[in-house]
Structures are given as C-alpha cells and as structure tokens.
Design goal:
The chain has two domains: 201 residues, Rossmann fold, CATH 3.40.50; 62 residues, Orthogonal Bundle (Helicase, Ruva Protein, domain 3). The protein contains twelve helices and nine strands. Helix 2 packs across helix 3. Strand 3, helix 4 and strand 4 form a beta-alpha-beta unit. It is elongated and about 65 Å long. The strands form two sheets. The protein has a seven-stranded mixed sheet with strand order 4-3-2-5-6-9-7. Strands 1-8 form a two-stranded antiparallel sheet. It has 277 residues and is of the alpha/beta class.
C-alpha cells in the first residue's frame, strides 16, 4: 500500500530528513495517484522501467508489485540510503544508482535493454524537467513515459503552435511522442504541498518519430530565445547558412515572411531538422 500522509511524515522524521526545496522534494501521498501512475504506464512482469527520484519508495514499491524490473536514480544521499537499506534487500528486481538524473537519465539501464523496449516513470523537479527530457529524446527512446510534472512544464511539453507555452521543447518532444492523457494533480496530493498544481502526463512513442540532431536542437533553441522577433530576421542572423536557406524555402511554400517562431507549426520545424547534420 502507498504511504499515507501520516506515514510519510513519520518516515521523514525517522530519517531526520527535511524535504529539499531545491531538489523539488515533494513526496506523493495520494494512493489513487500512485495507482493511476502505474495504470497509465501499463506495466507488467515483462516491463523494464526507469524511475527518476524514487524518494521514499512509494511509487517504486507499486511498480515492483507488478513484477516489473526497475532501474532507479536518486540524487539525495539520505533517500538513496533508505532505498538501499529498506527496499533493495526484499526486491531483487530493483537496481539503484545514487546520482543526478541529468548524469544518468536512464539510471544506467543496460544498453541492450534500452535499445529493446523500456518505459519511464518519473516525478520530475521543475528545474531539471527540460534538460532531462532533451537527454531522453536524444535516444535510445522509451516506448512510453508517465511523468509527474509541474503543470507549467506539462503545458510546455504539449503546447500547440500559436500559444505562449509553445517552444523548442514542444517541438522536440512532440516530434517523437504523442500525448495520450493529461491528469491534473492537486498540490494536496504531496507532502510538503507545493505552491502549484501538477499534471500526470502519458507520452507514447510515435511510429513516425522525427529526431533532431544536437546541431538542429541548438539552432532552434537559439531562435526561441528571441521568440517575439520575426523568424526571418532571426534566421538571417543565425550562424548556420542552412537556417537562412530553410526560411527562404518555407516562405516559398506560402508561410508569411513576418511569422514569429511560436506561430510556426511543428511540421515546418521538422523540415529544418532534415537539413541539418
């Protein structure tokens, strides 16, 4: 059974651990959300699952109860020691690494398994959500991800062109994944309660995935740092001649010369990816 709010507070007291705000340590205390996370991920005994930030092990135990094999990365020394001492001994299907998820985005999942089929379940702190996602979509790619995010981050991931939330990460992610469901999660479902609500997001790998090289990602990020300027002016100043040639080509296809980055549909950005190494 998932830890209740009372049990969570008691365990933190026992560990003499005060939640670290910088690390985004808000512990899930709602059993329904724990169960929903596992259901959305569609995990069974054949699954290999990467978990980011197992914390006190509430979601970890729920995943392991399906018979799945879990590869987890936890940055906090106190929490990783808790998992190592109180969860690992009884869970042979659990592999734990102590470290930063930006250094170990797939928790050292063996490469042969990463190139086969795996899933990710993660409770992502706001500060690392975008750089971690960029590391993940650089490949190998999970078949499915179920992510707990601050609502603002989730909105950016699935934003459509023309909206203020639309940006580089929206393009990169949606070119590889389709969002099938987004479940809003109240701040009351965590201890301590964050100041903002969260969202549980399910992402499934697209059959027609379009990958962006490092060069393409850097180019698009440069453009979106000045998102309110006209795209043509930004491309003219870009150091890559391919960017200027690309803009001329999409204008020839009928795109307005005055278009701004956030107004351009993802399909056009994908044609830029194909032009860059």
């Amino acid at each position: 059974m998932p830890l209740s709010p009372k049990q969570t507070r008691a365990l933190l007291d026992e560990l003499a651990h005060f939640p670290n705000k910088k690390l985004g340590q808000n512990f899930l205390v709602d059993g329904n959300i724990v169960r929903k996370s596992v259901e959305m991920a569609d995990i069974d005994a054949s699954s290999h699952v990467v978990e980011v930030g197992p914390g006190l092990g509430t979601l970890t135990r729920a995943i392991l109860s399906t018979g799945a094999t879990v590869w987890a990365v936890e940055r906090d020394r106190t929490l990783s020691e808790h998992i190592r001492t109180n969860v690992l001994p009884e869970q042979p299907n659990l592999h734990l690494i102590e470290g930063d998820c930006l250094d170990y985005p797939r928790a050292e999942l063996p490469i042969e398994q990463a190139e086969a089929c795996f899933k990710i379940v993660a409770n992502l702190p706001y500060a690392v959500s975008t750089p971690w996602m960029e590391a993940i979509i650089s490949g190998p790619l999970p078949q499915r991800m179920v992510l707990m995010l601050q609502k603002e981050a989730a909105d950016r991931y699935i934003a459509k062109h023309g909206s203020k939330a639309f940006g580089a990460i929206s393009i990169f992610l949606q070119s590889v994944y389709t969002a099938h469901s987004k479940h809003l999660v109240s701040a009351k479902c965590f201890h301590p309660a964050p100041k903002v609500d969260s969202a549980l997001l399910r992402l499934d790998l697209r059959e027609d995935a379009v990958h962006f090289s490092k060069v393409a990602r850097e180019c698009i990020r440069r453009i979106f740092t000045q998102r309110r300027k006209q795209l043509g002016a930004l491309c003219q100043r870009d150091p890559l001649p391919e960017a200027r040639e690309w803009f001329d080509s999409i204008v020839a296809e009928g795109v307005k010369a005055t278009v701004r980055p956030e107004e351009l549909a993802i399909e056009y950005w994908q044609t830029l990816a194909r032009r860059l190494p």
